[in-house]
Amino acid sequence: MLGAHCHARLLKRGSGYVPLPYSNFLSLAQSLPPSPNNASIECFSEEMGGNVFGSILRPAAFPRIPPTVYRALKARILPLLEELYTYVRIPHVAPEKADHGNLDLIVCLPREHNILIQGPPGPIATITPGKQQLVNVPHDIVAAIIKAKYFNSMDGNRTSNFAVPVPVKEWAEIGLVEGEAERTARDDAGEGGIFYQVDVNVCESEEEWSRRILFHSYGDLGMIMGLIAKNAGLHLGEKGLRYPDQPNPPLLLSESFDEIFEFFGWSMDEWKAGFQTNTAAYNWALSSKFVHPSQFRTQGPGIKKRKPDRKMYAGFLEYASTFSRDSIAGEATGFIPDAREAALDFFKKRSKLHERRNSQKRKEVLKGVFSGNNVRDWTNLGNYWLGVKQIMDGVRERLGGDEKIGALVSEKGEEELRGVVLAVQAELGVWPMSRTEELQNTTTKVEEVDAELVLGVKELSV
């Protein structure tokens, strides 16, 4: 079966197909012998790059989809997915898009009801959301309801790919131009036929679903917005806006695109109304109050190179370069605020940033002062590392953990910590060992004691 990794079959009844209860679907499917009376769906359960179905289908099997055909496909597939998921949407297409490579759907929350696929009454598949329910509807069910022949399955909030055969003369029924395009595509593809690639992007929550739809609408506009944020010293992606703060992880500013648009000065009403041309989308993005034309970078450190097929993004890079040159030659621009400073105030994150940086400093101080070697020297315990560990654990218990120890050192100095260490040593009664005892207890190394401290510091940073 063309090298497929797993096979799922539907029982054929009359002119349609009825799925088995999903719990028994694969086990019973595997017991069916190959037969013309059984419809086959081939499933790939592995990560694939580039051409998802390249191991079984030629690239020519997935022709570019004319806009009229794309709209018809969307009108057919969207209601089917709405039977399976509570939230289903197709991102707005890019302005001036001449044709399409695939159909992208972003979905969330499997519906709580029984799903009957085309066919007479019989066994049906049941989806019951609950604590144990996966984020996605079983891929076999999705493949069956949209009539896919092959699919690349990705569980959880990831994207699965489905290859849906194009019925013969389907494009011809739409128009003469489309019919000619179909004939050409079938000639190029050969005996295997031609397919639509339908990608189903599953989200874990309605909030994630909304963000992903916005960021992936209008072609490469989300990437363009990200580049503008990058020029302003921030990071914008489908998960929201972040404040880079090396060497620490980025500080989350907001996950709300309503807030993010307001901050950058982008009109949400204009975004919702849509863009008729790429230039209109470019001008909308460049309307941000943080765009400094003479200093706008389209390449260099921190800016990723994009694939050549990102034509809208490539067009923006050229447009922005011209925009920058014209601004330099023209009149001086007005005041451009510092986006990083403005973000801390707008999103009320300044105190959070200061708190985190102070915490990081305390951790660095702690790592250099409260070490196994230092405690050993202060207590004269020699190679009695088990005793060193006991004392360090006792200090943590007395002061309330590594964070409090770091604060003590930052405020009162190393000598104050040394006094606490000696006091804990006296309380525990941990004293230097004889030379014989030392040799017998050298199995606990200083590296192990320090490693435990480093682990504690890492846990604090999570």
User: Count the strands?
Assistant: 13
Rg over C-alpha atoms, rounded to the nearest angstrom: 31 Å
What class do helices, strands and sheet pairing give? Answer: alpha+beta
**Strand content bin:** 15-25%
How does the major sheet shape up?
Answer: 8 strands, mixed
How many DSSP helices?
18
Low-confidence stretches: 1-39, 45-50, 114-132, 328-332
Q: In angstroms, what separates the terminal alpha carbons? A: 47 Å
The geometry reads as elongated
List the strand order in the largest sheet.
Answer: 2-1-3-8-9-10-5-4
Chain-averaged pLDDT: 81
State the helical fraction. 40-55%
Structure description:
The chain has 18 helices and 13 strands. It has helices spanning 22-30, 67-82, 139-145, 176-189, 206-215, 221-231, 257-264, 268-273, 278-286, 311-329, 339-346, 350-369, 372-379, 385-399, 402-412, 414-428, 435-440, 446-461, and strands spanning 6-13, 16-18, 39-44, 85-89, 103-110, 113-115, 125-127, 150-152, 159-165, 195-203, 235-237, 240-245, 248-254. β8 (150-152) and β9 form a beta hairpin. Residues 1-39, 45-50, 114-132 and 328-332 have low confidence and may be disordered.
Give the SSE layout:
Elements: E1 6-13, E2 16-18, H1 22-30, E3 39-44, H2 67-82, E4 85-89, E5 103-110, E6 113-115, E7 125-127, H3 139-145, E8 150-152, E9 159-165, H4 176-189, E10 195-203, H5 206-215, H6 221-231, E11 235-237, E12 240-245, E13 248-254, H7 257-264, H8 268-273, H9 278-286, H10 311-329, H11 339-346, H12 350-369, H13 372-379, H14 385-399, H15 402-412, H16 414-428, H17 435-440, H18 446-461
